[in-house]
């Protein structure tokens, strides 16, 4: 997904930032440690779900500038949705990696699950606010899934990042 920076997007981000119960405090933090901590928390919280949650990282230590509370919310939103949409006996994988784009280092966090999937025609609504989404069966499941991905996307944008979803029904 390519994030555009038109006036409407910036106004939306500004409105969100103004309403965010901060403070928004970017400082150096170790993403390996933070991601591992959130994954451990979810493993404890959902132990009875019989969903396997694993964390992989090629790095032992990966420092980035970010707001720890916001990144915890991003990870919690992504994992909460993954757990609620993944049936017992299936798995979720969180992968943290480092990559470079035009000579600058970046971190990539992926959350992969083998849940029920999202139909292609519904993917365009995944980052919409709840009142903008059509009420199909699949979208109703997403609405019930917890922290909205619209909120997660806004937190990612505050960190000058991007977010996307790749999904196949029944995969």
Structure report:
The chain has helices at residues 7-19, 31-45, 68-84, 120-123, 137-143, 149-158; strands at 27-30, 52-57, 63-66, 91-101, 104-113. The protein is built from six helices and five strands. The strands form two sheets. The chain has a three-stranded mixed beta sheet. A two-stranded antiparallel sheet has the order 1-3. A hairpin with a 2-residue loop joins β4 (91-101) and β5 (104-113).
Quick check: average pLDDT? 78
Return the structural class: alpha+beta
Helix-strand string: HEHEEHEEHHH
Major sheet characteristics: 3 strands, mixed
Number of strands: 5
List keywords for this structure.
5 strands, two-stranded antiparallel ribbon, 20% strand, alpha+beta, globular, 171 residues, 6 helices, three-stranded mixed beta sheet
Helices and strands, with pairings:
Blueprint: H1 7-19, E1 27-30, H2 31-45, E2 52-57, E3 63-66, H3 68-84, E4 91-101, E5 104-113, H4 120-123, H5 137-143, H6 149-158
Parallel strand pairs: 2-4
Antiparallel strand pairs: 1-3, 4-5
Helix pairs in contact: 2-3, 3-6
Briefly summarize what is shown:
The chain is 39% helix and 20% strand. The protein has 171 residues and is of the alpha+beta class.
């Amino acid at each position: 997904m390519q994030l555009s920076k038109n006036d409407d997007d910036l106004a939306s981000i500004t409105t969100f930032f103004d309403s965010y119960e901060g403070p928004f405090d970017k400082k150096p933090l170790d993403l390996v440690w933070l991601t591992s901590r959130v994954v451990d928390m979810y493993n404890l919280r959902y132990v009875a779900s019989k969903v396997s949650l694993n964390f992989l990282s090629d790095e032992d230590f990966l420092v980035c500038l970010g707001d720890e509370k916001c990144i915890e919310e991003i990870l919690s939103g992504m994992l909460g949705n993954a757990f609620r949409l993944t049936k017992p006996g299936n798995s979720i994988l969180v992968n943290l990696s480092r990559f470079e784009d035009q000579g600058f280092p970046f971190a990539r966090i992926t959350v992969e699950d083998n849940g029920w999937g999202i139909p292609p025609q519904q993917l365009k609504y995944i980052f919409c606010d709840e009142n903008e989404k059509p009420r199909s069966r699949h979208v109703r499941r997403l609405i019930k899934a917890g922290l909205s991905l619209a909120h997660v996307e806004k937190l990612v944008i505050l960190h000058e990042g991007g977010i996307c979803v790749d999904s196949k029904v029944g995969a």
